[in-house]
Amino acid sequence: FLQAYKRAQYLKQYTNFRKNQGLEIQSKTAQLVDFNAKLNGQRQDKKKIIAENQKERLALEVEKKEQQKLVNSIKKDKNKIIADTRSKQQEAKRI
């Protein structure tokens, strides 16, 4: 009878232990799911930021090219004006 009682107590303790293990596993699983959701959210945020940075970089490159075209145009105009001025000065010297 004593062995049966001890066996019943052991089974009861083992059942409680396994039940607690199951609850702990559920808790840890829920924590991991939440953590994964946060990580996925952060990953999406980083992807958005990277995409925005790339878009901004492309816009800056386009703007830089446009400014370079403008600078080149101004240099051409400057050289033309200088050449015109020199030719007029030479003409004025002849007169």
List strands and helices in order, with pairings:
Blueprint: H1 2-94
Number of strands: 0
Mass-distribution shape: rod-shaped
Order of helices and strands: H
Radius of gyration in whole Å, from Cα? 40 Å
Largest sheet descriptor:
none
Strand content: under 5%
| Assembly state (oligomeric) | single chain
Overall structural class, as computed from helix and strand content, comes to mainly alpha
| Average pLDDT number | 96
When the domains are counted, the total is: 1
Helix content: over 70%
Pick out the low-confidence regions: none
N-to-C span: 139 Å
DSSP helix count?
1
Structure in words:
This is Peptidase M23. With 95 residues, the chain is mainly α. It has one domain (1-94). The chain has one helix and no strands. The protein is rod-shaped and about 140 Å long.
Explain briefly what this protein structure is:
It comes from Flavobacterium circumlabens. The protein has one helix and no strands. With 95 residues, it is mainly α.
Summary tags:
about 100 residues; mainly alpha; rod-shaped; Peptidase M23
